[in-house]
Design goal:
With about 270 residues, the protein is mainly alpha-helical. It has one domain. It is built from ten helices and five strands, in the order αββααβββααααααα. The strands form two sheets. Strands 3-5-4 form a three-stranded mixed beta sheet. Strands 1-2 form a two-stranded antiparallel ribbon. The structure holds zinc ion (ZN).
């Protein structure tokens, strides 16, 4: 009897926490992990990465990353998270965002960004992953597949689940490698990110230029880990071009207009 009641309790909890609506796209998503726990996992994973990496010593670039990050976070659907934006000293062309608003850029991606609007393209995309809770969705799918019903019991300290949790949140066992999400989640992050960058006052047309530069790199065989199996190339650019009129409307309504912003590398 007690056991039955316990199972009922679990099922009710799942029903309450399971279905969420994604901001901007309004897509329904299944999430079995309580939000508070997701935030704690994200913050903890972020500390682990930062402990192993070296922060950039370039104060000007660090300030730009923070400025673009703050502007995008403040127009996002979760402005009140404890947002943090770190620039890591590394040639990797990479960036990631973890639940709870923990964002990191690697110096190597800045050459592709070229200007603040390019940073805003990547920032918008990564912030969108965090806000659409794609990490929690992937973790939920893993939990269902592995038959772990007690989502509330998973912790980063638990050695057995650690790699699974980090990978689901977008970090590989080797820290610094962002695992791409599903194509649907990637397209969704592009969409939400484009709207956020425009709302923050960055010219959304630069997103098309950013992805062109990015694709050129890929063709040059220097495949960046960041977004390596993302819905790439022409299809992605076509989709962004399709969404541009909507993004330009958001841009027209934005409180500030920074255009392309400052150039990154002088
Ligand atoms: Zn992505």
């Amino acid at each position: 009897m007690v056991r039955k009641r316990y199972l009922l309790y679990i099922l009710l909890t799942l029903l309450v926490t399971a279905c969420v609506t994604t901001p901007v796209t309004e897509r329904k998503a299944l999430i079995l992990i309580p939000f508070e726990q997701e935030l704690a996992l994200g913050a903890q994973a972020y500390r682990e990465v930062l402990n192993k990496e070296k922060e950039s010593g370039d104060e000007r670039l660090k300030a730009i990353i923070r400025r673009v990050g703050r502007r995008i976070a403040s127009v996002s659907d979760m402005p009140d998270l404890d947002w943090e934006f770190t620039l890591i000293e590394s040639k990797e062309k990479n960036a990631f965002a973890l639940p709870g608003g923990k964002v990191a850029f690697y110096e190597g991606i800045l050459g592709v960004c070229e200007n603040e609007a390019g940073v805003a393209t990547v920032m918008g995309h990564e912030v969108a992953h965090a806000i659409a809770r794609h990490g929690a969705q992937r973790l939920s799918q893993e939990l269902i597949m592995t038959g772990v019903l007690t989502a509330a019991a998973i912790r980063l300290e638990d050695r057995n689940n650690k790699d699974l949790i980090l990978a689901a949140l977008g970090l590989g066992a080797t820290v610094g490698i962002t695992l791409p999400f599903s194509r649907m989640n990637e397209a969704e992050a592009d969409y939400i990110g484009l709207i956020y960058m425009a709302r923050a006052g960055y010219d959304p047309r630069e997103a098309v230029n950013f992805w062109r530069r990015f694709n050129k790199l890929k063709k040059g065989k220097q495949i960046p880990e960041f977004l390596s199996t993302h819905p790439s190339d022409e299809k992605r650019i076509q989709e962004i071009e399709r969404l541009l009129p909507l993004a330009l409307k958001e841009y027209a309504r934005a409180g500030h207009h920074y255009g392309l912003g400052e150039r990154l590398l002088k």
